[in-house]
Amino acid sequence: MKKIPQKRNWTILLLSILCISVISCENDDDPKNNTETEHAATKQALIGEWKLISSTIDGEAVGLEDFSYLKESTATFNADNTYELVYRRRNGNLAATSILSGTYTVEGINSVTFFNSTSKIELVDDALQITSTTEDNKTQVDIFIKADNEELANDGESNGDIIGDENDNSDPPSSSFDGSEIISQIQGVWEITGVTDECQKKNTLEFVGSDEVIFTQHKETFNRNDLLKYNVSVTYPLQSDFSAVVTEGFNTITFDSNADCQFKKESDLSYLVEDAETIRIEESSRLTFKIIDDSTINLVYEYEDDDSNVQTIEYVYIKT
Predict the structure, then answer these.
(1) Could you give the CA distance from residue 1 to residue 8 in angstroms, rounded to a whole number?
(2) Which secondary structure element, helix H or strand E, spans residue 273, and what is its range?
(3) How far apart are the C-alpha atoms of 109 and 106, rounded to whole Å?
(4) What is the C-alpha end-to-end distance of the chain, expressed in Å?
C-alpha cells in the first residue's frame, strides 16, 4: 500500500521536469532572443576605429589623385551608439574635410542605419561598406577596415621600399666640387650585396650620364599599406590575381601577385657629387651614397621610427 504514493510522486516529478524542459526550449527558440543576440554581435563587430581602403563610383575605382586625399577618411563607432565619419576629399589642390556624426541603430544582422543620414552601411565579413549618392547622382561605395587589421600592419622602413620623401621640401643639394672624375668612375650598374632575401638581391643602382641614377628595389610581397601608400584603391579582400603599374613623380611601382617578386619600384633620381666620397640625391635629403672605393658604394638612408627616433639603413653595392 505504501508503494502507490511513491509511484505518484515519481510521476509528478517527471512531469515537472518535462514542463521545465519545454519552457526552456520555448525560450531558446524565442525569435526575440535570437534577434537580440544577432544585434549584439553586429554592434560588437562595429565598435572601434575604421580606415578607408577602397572607393568606387558607379563601379569604377576612384583615381589616384582623388584617392590620395580620400584614403585619409576614418569612421569611429562607439558603444553608446554614437558615430563619427570624417571624410577627406580633394578640392582643387587642397584637402576638404567633412564630418558626419550622430547616433546609429543596429537594424539587423550586419545591418546598421545612421540617424538623419541617407547613407547605407553594412558589415560585409570584417569590412564596413558605406553606400551613398554623390552630388551628380552616382553611387559611391566606400570600404573601411578596422585600424588594427593585419592588412594595415606596418612592416617598417627596412622592408625594401625606401625613398619615402616624395614630398621632400628641402633645398636641392649644391656643390662647387669638380666631380667629373667621380662621375666617370661610377657610370654603369651596381648590384646589392650582403643581403639574404632573394628579391632584395635583385636591387640595383644604375648611374646614367652626369646627374641621373636609377634606383630599383624589389620585395617578395606587398600589402594593403603599400597600395595605400601609392594611392591604389582596391576592393577588399584583395583578389589573388592582381596587377597594377603606378607612376607617381619619379617613381614607377609595379604590383604583380603572380611574380616571384610581387613588388618592384624604380626611382629615376637626380644626383650630385658633393665631394670625393659623397653623392647627394635631389629628391630625398635622407638618401646618400658613400663611395668606399672604385668598386664599392654604400647606400645610406635615414628615417624616423614610430617613436620619432632617427634610424639608419645602410646597404652595400658593388660594381658589375
Answers:
(1) 12
(2) strand 263-273
(3) 8
(4) 110
Q: Return the SS3 of 203.
A: coil
CA 49, CA 74: separation in Å to the nearest integer? 7
Residue 63 reports pLDDT greater than 60? yes
Quote the CA–CA distance of 67 and 50 in Å, as a whole number: 16
Q: Determine the Cα–Cα distance for residues 17 and 10; give it in Å rounded to an integer.
A: 11
If you ran DSSP here, which 8-state letter would residue 136 be given? T
Q: Looking at the DSSP assignment, which residues form a beta bridge with residue 11? A: none
pLDDT in tens, 246-284: 998 999 999 999 999 999 999 999 999 999 999 999 999
Question: Contact at 8 Å (CB) between 250 and 267?
Answer: yes
* Cα separation, 132 vs 120, whole angstroms: 7
In the block, which residue shows the cell 611601382? 253
Q: Residue 145: count other Cβ atoms within 10 Å of its Cβ.
A: 21
User: Higher confidence at residue 91 or residue 290?
Assistant: 290
Q: What is the pTM of this model?
A: 0.81
Length of the chain: 320
